[in-house]
Queue: 2 jobs
Job 1
Amino acid sequence: MAAETDTGAIEDFGQVSRTVGTVFRYLLLAATMFGIVMLAVLLLYVANDAIRPLTADPGWYLAFFLALVAPTGIAGWAVRRRDPAALTFGTFLVGMLVVSLMFSGGVALLVIDVVPPLVALAFAIGLAVPIGATVGLTRYAHRISFTLRLAATTAVFYLSLFGLPGPIGDAVGAPPIVPSLVALVQSVPVIPVDWMMVAAVVGGGSAAAIGTYVASVGDGSAGLYAAGVALAASAAAGAAGPLVGVDSVPAVVITAVALVPTTAYAWRGGFTEEGSPLGLVFAATVVVGALVGAAAVDVLGFAGPQSWVDWGFLTSAHSGTAENAGLYPAIGGSILLMTTVAALSFPVGVGAAVYLEEYAGDNALTRFVDVNISNLAGVPSVVYGLLGLGVFVTYLGRSAGTVLVGGATLALLILPIVIISAREAIRSVPSDMRQASYGMGATRWQTVKNVVLPEAFPGILTGTILALGRAIGETAPLIMIGAPNVVFNLPTALGSKVSAMPLQVYAWSSLFASEDFYTKAVPAGVVVLLAVLLAMNSVAIVLRNKFERTQ
Amino acid sequence: MSTDELTTDITTQTENSPRELLTRTFFFLCAALSIVTTISIVALLVTEAARFFSLTAPLLGVTGPTASIVDFLTGTSWNINGGEFGVLTLVSATVMITLGSAVIAIPLGVATAIYLSEYASERARSLLKPALEILAGVPTVVYGFFALIYITPALSVVFPSIGTFNMLSASIVVGIMIIPMVASISEDAMSAVPDELRQAGYGMGATKFDVATGIVVPAALSGIFSSFILALSRAIGETMAVTIAAGSRAQFLNPVNPASFLEGSLPMTAAMVQLLLGDITGGGLAYRSLFAIGLVLFVITLVMNVISDFVAQRYREEY
Amino acid sequence: MSQNSTNKQNRNERAERDESADPTADGMDIQTDVSGSVAASAGGSPTRETVVSAKHISVWYGDDQALSDITMDIPERSVTAMVGPSGCGKSTFLRCINRMNDLIDSARVEGDLYLRGKNVYDDDVDPVALRRRVGMVFQKPNPFPKSIYDNVTYGLKIQDKGGDYDEIVEESLKRAALWDEVKDQLGESGLELSGGQQQRLCIARAIAPDPEVLLMDEPASALDPVATSQIEDLIEELAEDYTVVIVTHNMQQAARISDQTAVFLTGGELVEFDDTQKIFENPESQRVEDYITGKFG
């Protein structure tokens, strides 16, 4: 080529064929999308079977399109043009409302059917008093030695929860001398009505959380003020609920768990300096649109889809006919199991992670534990089920299929995952922070408590929620420990038999295998299970994003 | 400050204060629990399996029916009521599921990893990675239902002779389930390939295709292999999807004969569930057979995890 | 308030002197500058007690020797600077004084180091308790993600010390010349301050528990020139009450603020340790002279 040109310059670099590369690239993309598309199609099928969107009147769709979809689209477009961050905030606010409404459903289920309000109140008071005493003790008397403080704390909790001499006395047959605070509250002759007690427990808890949140953003008095408003709102909902046709107890729970936190978040995002009211406009469009749409179809008499996922499905128990079968005991069982699993696996998992990252040196034992944990993460879940069956049921003689045995088995199952993610979160705490703390003469525990854990907490929480998401979908270990396939009542104690959502879905698709169950109850169960999982995972992802941004 | 006072101060032992001892002990016990779990699993599986076999049962004082260890490991028929415990029957079904899911997950997973690591834009990655995580996050009982209700009927259009319960649909869903595992571990390995290697390739005039297939994949090969082994070990331990979709009738199938994928059989994990749902009395032969299968399953997955760790360790040393 | 006004006076004096020193950074100017500050403290120097006394300290990280056979005495209430090229072991030596090296698994220390006559490498010394008596300020400002108030009281809290925290916070922040800037925002996060303010907060945090010795590991290297000069002023003031040991790679800084200078050279060797004036005007060793005049290093 060069010989043909007089100047000796290269005229042409030639062409390298890109055809193979392009084909390869699109093949890769297709492979990447295969699983995702396949799952999407399957999800569409199951959602179609469960919700049956084609059974609705066209007018129903039109009404919701006009009231909800079109305004949301327009508002979203307009808000995005002005301020994309406001759209994110508004979407997040709507998402928070939906997720917190689901969560309040779970809490309502607990206070209505599992824990009687009086017992809940008694335990809330029985815990709040010693916690208050302990906080006061550490705040106003920081010179008291640790041993004394520990003894005082233990004593005040024991007295409040068990009285004197309590279970230790029972064991030796001593008569009770001082009743516990819990028993005292329960023996009060005049008790308030249920919703007031629920407002005190759930509303109080929510108010405390809101107060702390506001205080951390603004100052202490604003926090106190916000907590007062939140508590008053919960109580007011209980009084006003019956007037608009909602029972008092659910009204209190929904207000305390869903409406108050969402409002607090909306207020902070909409009216403080860094927020923008535009996001609120978007969120309001969605919420008002949904309400208007619902009112319109009601007035105009358009029938919605004949969904199998309906109120009856969520609130009734199993039945021999698919139309009447419901998921209520399984939902309650899953909630109780998750609470037990979280209570067991969180402290132990974080403790193990702290030991491995902050205490253990680099020696053979640590490396062995390290390898051991990664291998435990790979042990099939059915083997964990065998462990639960063999150790808890057969050797320790616990009765099969209870909340406690199921929760403990699932906790062991997710423990390696919790440990691994907690270790990652702890490792991401900058080492300057530790250096600063050790340089001040802090001990290991002081460094862990004051510096490492507060910094790593969001990461640990994210990892734990994702691990709980794994546990909530597990079926095999529950079958192994003998959880019953059909439960008609909610478990009310740690020793009650428990079912769970995936177990119920399995029972319907195997033991009650019939066309009827395949097309009605099972798809509905799958949709509910996936919705709960989606809600949990999105909470975890939101937390993770927030965490990564602040890092 | 006087010297004596200072000496007293700096010789105060903080390490052994009750607070430090208590917290250190608590954290240590938490970490030790993982070892206790492993020991419990091994001890439980080994003792119960030992009580199952005729060879070892008398040593543990077990009377009553037992099974021959030779028949267990070599028999090709599984029938509890008939006293036939040939675990190979179950293993053959498990091997089929594993092979079938490997055929799906390995090419798709590696292709996904190459795409994510070499081709996808930052934005595409941020959308695709969570989407792939969802594949692994869907409960396996849901996958089993999908296989039984949607995939099998669709397959019967192509293969009219397919059974209601069949290995093919179970393999497909298990394959989809483990794609993210292959993809994410392989992608980690590919991302760990130093950029200089890629630059060197481009500097020689290689196309992106040449670099991806000729430089990145070979350099990340051990990581990719380690992902295969780990994902297949997951497929072997997978329970609910195969329990629902693969059937309940144990029969010995030839894993390398494609036609046998259209039939149903009973993989190890499904057999365990079936045993549990049947009427097993605590301590009976069926109960003990459960632990014998569990032991086989545990050993297989453990060995695979260890191999995968070993392979992954080797590639980590290279950079 | 009275202390505050003294601070300001001092600062003005320093500013004037810095102005004269800064435009030309050659050897002559530094020497004239230094002669002033050494002369001011020379009177007290013979009577000063030794606070930190190192005897044959050697440190290894794994098989690599980081310090070899260091012996030196550091007098109280003065600024002792450690200079030398990077990797010469000056920071390692600093970390021997409060046993921060104990936190590194591979580190091994030999020799003795006395703090007011007590060997800190004795078996009965708890490194954690030792660090409560020896404050440390790090290269990069590292306040905790807590409020300014909580940052300053951290040392008191972990030592279960009582006392009027409000007063101690005010006192420490005043000494760190930060009080006026933050007195209205004590509840806000320490991370919201500027880099220079963060480093002064770290100094306030270090002096709040009233340590015996204050160690500073290149405290100004991550800061801009204005913040650096503030920190330098502060160090000289702190030397009235504390024994300050500072590591720096900046020769002018060592000349400006220190009373004694130790020169470490490659291989973890202490080549010369003397009054700063002597080191910069008339070093014994040719290698030190080469290093100071920039021929090497």
Job 2
Amino acid sequence: MKRRLFLIILLISFLSSSAVSIVTSKVYYDLYAADAKNQIQTILGLTKEESNWKDNQAINLSVNKILSTVNYSIRFTIVDIDGDVVYDNRAKNEVLENHKDRPEIKSAFQNGRGEYIRRSDTISTDMYYYAEKINENEVLRLSREISSINQVFINILPLIVFSFVALFVVVYICANIFIKKILKPINLLAGSINEITDDKKHKDVYIYEELEPISRRFREQRLKINQYINELKYERDTINIITDNMREGFILLNKDKNILSINKSGKEMVGNDKFDLQNERNIIELTRNKNILSKIDLSFKENKHIAYDSENDGNYFRYYLSPVADKENVTGMLILIEDITITKNAEIIRSEFSANVSHELKTPLTTIIGFAELIKEGLITDVDSIKKYSSMINNEGLRLISLIEDIMRLSKIEENTDKNEDTIINLKDVLNKVVSLLEVKAEDLNINLSFEATDIYMKANYNYISELFYNLIDNAIKYNKENGSVIAKIYEKDGFIITSVKDTGVGIAKEHQHRIFERFYRVDKSRSKDTGGTGLGLSIVKHIAELYKGQIKVESIEGDGTEIIVKFPQ
Amino acid sequence: MRNRFDKELEILNLELIKMGGLIEESIETSAKALINKDLEMAKRVNELEVEIDEMEKTIENHCLKLLLQQQPVASDLRIISTALKMITDMERIGDNAEDIAEISKFLANQKFIKDLVHIPQMAEATISMVKRSVDAFVNKDKELALKVCKDDDVVDNLFQIIKTELIEKIQEDTENGEQAIDLLMIAKYLERIGDHAENIAEWVIFSITGEHRIRGEKI
């Protein structure tokens, strides 16, 4: 802008000064030429009397006289009516060509006078001829050189060039000052745009009146932009709040697989919770898990949704890969990661459970069918054997029934259909009864069974609590050593009712401790047959405890005994 | 111009991470091949080794092209020279993993002279070192790189333990000698991998600070 303005100013001044110099040279030349002609005409007019030119002596006298009065050379020529040159002061001894057809001579014979300017292309001077009749037969012609217009121009050229240079300097300085002056308020406007667009500060800044509409526009725009920014901020914050509080991992990729957005859960689930997303970073910087990366590639390539399960340190994650497509082209990808560890573990437990339950139910049935078949086929005939085998069938049948009863009881506790049968019961009475039931069994196995209890009352279903004690003490007796002991206790502490059953038995290894309450879970699978039981006992205990908001704790050292503590809130 | 150069550096960075991913997979697979006597896994390591070699060539060409065409200075030059040094260490890790896989193929149809206890531990420690050195590179994490350098001592100690155990085994029965030497070789390869991982971590520190760490020195 500044440069253009400057160039325009310079161009205008150059053009105008050129025009002026051309016109000046023309006027100057015209004046000069007119003056030159005038002089010649005057000289001729004054000296044209015939007497001055009648013989050679008179001619020479006149010529010398005239030449002595002027400071330039004049050529004198006398031509007769036939066009022959009678006298010429420049070519005295030469024979000159016929001058009859020269325009000035011709005109002089006809009209008494004539003039002509012969322009020269090569010489920088023109010749001016002026002729007048001096008598009927002779014409006197005077001629002198005058500078051509070009010559005049060339003569004054240095002056013009000098004035151009001077002009350039002056224009340069003036234009600079001028341009600066024009641009100053605009620069001010640009520099103080913040103040100008701010309504409060606006008054303090001086700008051109003519620029006021612009600054008003700026203010309007600024308001709009601020509004947009606020809207965008609000939207972004909303999205951030949503993604940051999502339990699921969330990752957004662009078409180069650079991460545009990732939430905290996403980082944790991928296993790179230190990941810091400043600019766009490629997905490969987040995880180098080849399986996930190849699935993402596949999803990008084929533009289809993919769900993929991945395991990371015992946790299971499901990746939902959704390509974001614009018509045919995939322009990005949305990845949701769900933690499916609980579901996956539950699946494993469920499949183990159904395998266990069918095994537990099938084992007694196989025995029953086997012996029944032997008897049916008549392979066993003697009464003793029949007695023995039918009692085994009977036992297995009873076992089956107790198993089914346990399963039913368990589901009943789970559903808690007997809740309205809750009454206030004395736990000491319940324990007393259970101990007396199991005393015989303990004596058979040479185990010392004892209990310590005070009168503690609790609102519960009598049968359930009795079941709980029975199962705990029964286990304590069953998994005990020869001459071992079992102590059951009930006491109050810190507002809790605490029941504890402690034995000196085989103990439970650490890795089994958290699993013993699962249905059908057996620490020692091969021993289960000898000790009997359905593998549901502790599972029932756990469900009853949970029913009354109790907590179960197992303290056990393998080979040293076990203590199972159940804590009920009062 | 600068913009394009930055883009090229970014691509170089991603290529290095990719190569890092390959060496991680390679050493993990070779450890599995050894411990589970899995021939399929051992074959997979061979394939990975080819991929790693190709990757090394690609990155090397890329680096040289950048050096010649862009004539980088200061930190740019440091990044590229670091890349050139790192790929050498990465490639060596790939080679060592392949060597382990080769011995595993041979051991796959033998009974181990003793249950492998310390070798899996050592493998785990080296895998972790390699992983974390790549992580340190990805995240430009100087602290993590320093930790990796420190962990090399763990691997070195395990190597000493394994060596002593194997000597005992040979003293018990000279029949054990052949396998004991194979296992010793494996332990040595793992120890070398640990050294290379340490080198990578050192290069990471160099690319961040511009100072090369002298082995054992604290920065």
